From TrEMBL:
This is Purine nucleoside phosphorylase DeoD-type. The lineage of its organism: Bacteria, Bacillati, Bacillota, Erysipelotrichia, Erysipelotrichales. GO terms for biological process: purine nucleoside metabolic process; uridine catabolic process. One of its GO terms (cellular component) is cytosol. Catalyzes the reversible phosphorolytic breakdown of the N-glycosidic bond in the beta-(deoxy)ribonucleoside molecules, with the formation of the corresponding free purine bases and pentose-1-phosphate. Keywords: Glycosyltransferase, Transferase. The active site is at D205 (proton donor). A purine D-ribonucleoside binds at H5, E180, M181, E182, S204, D205. The gene is deoD. The record marks R218 as: Important for catalytic activity. Pfam families: PNP_UDP_1. The keyword Transmembrane does not apply. It comes from Thomasclavelia cocleata.
Length: 233
């Protein structure tokens, strides 16, 4: 059984899938952490692997950048491959002075400038939230590992290069900790299909201090976040 975007056969994908935006990060993670990793997808170079971590079967697959992309892959994983949990492991920009480079954000909910949820024809505005069970486990593991973490709301945006230069300040004033581009669509898709989702983000740059990490660091570092996600799985 294949979909237009995933060539995996039935049974080749685990119940829990970790999804970084970057398919090369998916490959790096699978090669670094999974035993007996087997590649199940190569369509559009959106690499996906299944293997085992501490005896548990887990899959890792790239989501691509933006809500349309994660909307497609998460919908297919949940509805066609029997996936129950998707944990996005991404990078984000910080909106707050106290949220530093390399800190982890455990995402509780998302605001958005996207119209992704219009398809559900709700008589109001949909608030996308993560699964509390997954969130609780992530918080416990972050405490155990003694990492700098924050739990809260973020902006999940359709836009990377914002024309409105005051946008970060406005969202920060409403309590958003940072910005990325996929979680709202992931959480909404999970809710629609009665599945579970969580996002863990490592701060790759600060919209306050203007500091940033290198592309190589983004691809290969951020190990604390990856280990938390693997242990939840
Ligand atoms: O590092 P990833 O998971 O791709 O996440 C962030 O990085 C990309 C933008 O550079 C967007 O996908 C954003 O959400
Ligand atoms: O979406 C993103 C990700 C990292 N940094 C940003 O400013 N935006």
């Amino acid at each position: 059984m294949a979909t237009p975007h995933n060539e995996a056969a039935t049974g080749e994908i685990a119940k829990t899938v970790l999804m970084p935006g970057d398919p090369l990060r998916a490959k790096f993670l699978a090669m670094t952490y999974l035993e007996d990793a087997k590649q199940f997808n190569n369509v559009r170079n959106m690499f996906g692997y299944t293997g085992s971590y501490k005896g548990k079967e887990v899959s890792i697959m790239g989501s691509g950048m933006g809500m349309p992309s994660i909307g497609i892959y998460s919908h297919e994983l949940y509805s066609q491959y029997g996936v129950e949990n998707i944990i996005r492991i991404g990078t984000c920009g910080s909106f707050k002075k106290h949220v530093h480079l390399r800190d982890i954000i455990i995402v509780q909910g998302c605001c958005t400038d996207s119209n992704f949820a219009y398809q559900f024809e709700l008589p109001g505005v949909y608030s996308a939230i993560s699964d509390y069970g997954l969130l609780e486990k992530a918080v416990a593991l972050a405490k155990e590992k003694n990492v700098n973490y924050h739990v809260g709301n973020i902006l999940s945006s359709d836009i990377f290069y914002h024309a409105d230069k005051n946008s970060p300040e406005k969202w920060a004033s409403m309590g958003c900790l940072g910005v990325e581009m996929e979680s709202y669509a992931l959480f909404a898709t999970a809710a629609y299909l009665n599945k579970r989702a969580l996002t863990l983000l490592t701060v790759s740059d600060s919209l306050v201090s203007k500091e940033e990490t290198t592309p190589e660091e983004r691809e290969k570092s951020f190990t604390a976040m990856m280990e938390i996600a693997l242990e939840i799985a």
